[in-house]
Amino acid sequence: MKIALLAFASAGDILGTGEAELELAPRTTLAGLKRLLEQRHPQLGPIWSRLAIAVNGELRPDDATLADGDEVALLPPVSGGSGDLPVLTEDPLDPAEVARRVAHPACGAVVLFSGTVRESHHGRAVERITYSAYRAMADARLREIASRLELGYPGARVAIVHRLGEIPVGAPSVVIAVASPHREAAYGASREALERLKAEVPIWKREHYTDGESSWREEEPLTRKAAPGDEGPRAENVR
Q1: 98, 97, 95: which is closest to 171 by C-alpha?
Q2: Where is pLDDT greater, at 86 or 112?
Q3: pTM of the shown model
Q4: Measured between alpha carbons, how far is 112 from 27 in angstroms, rounded to an integer?
Q5: What is the distance, to the nearest Å, from the Cα of residue 164 to the centroid of all Cα atoms in its chain?
Q6: Are 109 and 186 in contact (CB under 8 A)?
């Protein structure tokens, strides 16, 4: 069978073309196509986590089966969004700066979420929290979440920044900024960003209490939720 392959931006640079026709074995999956492309273009390997893949204009998971005549598009993160803004940092977070990175004249709504360290948990006084991460995976997953939300909410611009290291009570540990032409999409993308962050990104926190004790807050196994567009216009919240 034959498919049309479209590659945009950096993906097109790696393939050396923005459009090509490929002949594949019947019932090849997207995972099989990815393996084939990576064999031919090893430079794709490091950027797979940043790419969304659409089949006939809809985002699809790796186990989707391709059919003769399908159009497959490799979609790097769109311009705007988090851009060069670090998604993981040891420095104090500036919510206003994160919001400025997504603001755009075409966007009439900007939703800013700032998650701060609370002074108590289950009745125990908290002094500070230490965040640690499997950094390479966490960085890639945060960028992927932001870029896929931008694809799932047309016109949206998304930035997610998480602080690592020791964070005192009252200081922000995560900031999510979403700009969109309309407020409903901005609220929806912001909520989904936080829920996916908590479920999918390998970041852990250790609470330090004023009595000198500390404990890890390991409460939810890592999962990989469907991205917006994988199951229709919007993914359903599962939490």
Answers
A1: 95
A2: 112
A3: 0.61
A4: 44
A5: 18
A6: yes
- Cβ(159)–Cβ(82) below 8 Å: yes
Query: In angstroms, what CA-CA distances link 161 with 99, 172, 183, 204, 228?
Result: 11, 10, 21, 15, 20
Q: What is the DSSP letter of 220?
A: S
Residues counted in the chain: 239
Could you tell me the pLDDT band of residue 82, with boundaries at 50, 70 and 90? very low
Q: Is the pLDDT of residue 90 over 90?
A: yes
Question: What's the number of CA atoms in the CB half-sphere (13 Å) around residue 155?
Answer: 14
Q: What one-character-per-residue DSSP string does 128-190 give?
A: EEEEEE-HHHHHHHHHHHHHHHHHHSTT-EEEEEEE-EEEETTSEEEEEEEEESSHHHHHHHH
Residues 6+ apart with CB under 8 A from 228: 59, 148, 149, 151, 152, 153, 189, 192, 234, 235
- Backbone CA torsion sign across 121, 87, 90, 206: positive
Residue 209 half-sphere exposure toward CB, CA atoms < 13 A: 13
**Residue closest to 133 by CA, chosen among 146, 142, 125, 124:** 142
* DSSP sequence for 46-105: GGGGG-EEEETTEE--TTPBP-TT-EEEEEPPPSSTTTTS-SEESSPP-HHHHHHHH--T
Asked if residues 196 and 158 have their Cβ atoms less than 8 Å apart, the reply is no
Residues ≥6 apart with Cβ < 8 Å to 195: 225, 237, 238, 239
